[in-house]
Amino acid sequence: MFMFHQYSHMPNQVAICSAANDGATILEQMEVQNQIGKLLVELSKSQDHEIGDGTTGVVVLAGSLLEQAESLLDMGIHPLRVAEGYEMGCKVATAHLDTIATKWDFSQDNLEPLIQTCMTTLSSKVVGRLKRPMAEICVKAVLAVADLPRKDVNLDLIKVEGKVGGAMADTRLVEGIVIDKDFSHPQMPKELKDVKVAILTCPFEPPKPKTKHKVDIDTVQKFESLRQAEQQYFVDMVQKCKDAGAGLVICQWGFDDEANHLLMHHKLPAIRWVGGVEIELLAMATGARIVPRFEELSPDKLGFAKSVREVGYGTTKDRSIIIEGCPNLSAVTIWVRGGNRMVLDEVRRSLHDALCVARNLVRDNSIVYGGGSAEISCSLAVEAAADQVVGVEQYAMRAFADALEAVPLALAENSGLPSIESLTAVKARQLAENNPHLGIDCNDRGTNDMREQ
Question: Would you call 109 a catalytic residue per the annotation?
Answer without folding.
Answer: no
